[in-house]
Specification:
single chain; about 100 residues; alpha+beta; four-stranded antiparallel sheet
Length: about 100
C-alpha cells in the first residue's frame, strides 16, 4: 500500500512540478524597481476586489513602465502600489 501511495506522489510531482511549488515561489523585485514605484506620483484606481500576490490585474487597469526594467510594470490600485510582471500582468509585489 505504501509503495502505491509513494509511486502516485512521485508521478504527481513529475507530471506537475510547477503546481507543487507554486505557492512557495517568491519573486525578488530589485530594490531599484521598488524605489522607483514608491517615488512616482501615480493616481490610484479603485477596483472591487482585493489585489493579492499571484492574481492578475484586469486589462482595464493601465500599467506604467519601470525605466531600465522592462520585465516589470506597476499601478496604484486601491491606494496600494502594485508591481506586476509586464507580460502577464501577474502581481508579484504589493507595497502598502
Amino acid at each position: 500500500m505504501n509503495k502505491v501511495l509513494y509511486a502516485a506522489l512521485v508521478a504527481g510531482v513529475v507530471a506537475h512540478p510547477s503546481s507543487v511549488f507554486a505557492q512557495s515561489a517568491v519573486v525578488a523585485v530589485p530594490s531599484e524597481v521598488e524605489t522607483y514605484v514608491v517615488q512616482e506620483k501615480t493616481p490610484s484606481v479603485k477596483i472591487e476586489r482585493e489585489v493579492i500576490v499571484g492574481s492578475e490585474l484586469p486589462d482595464a487597469i493601465e500599467l506604467r513602465a519601470v525605466p531600465k526594467f522592462n520585465t516589470y510594470s506597476y499601478a496604484v490600485v486601491n491606494n496600494r502600489r502594485v508591481i506586476v510582471e509586464a507580460k502577464t500582468r501577474k502581481v508579484i509585489k504589493v507595497i502598502d
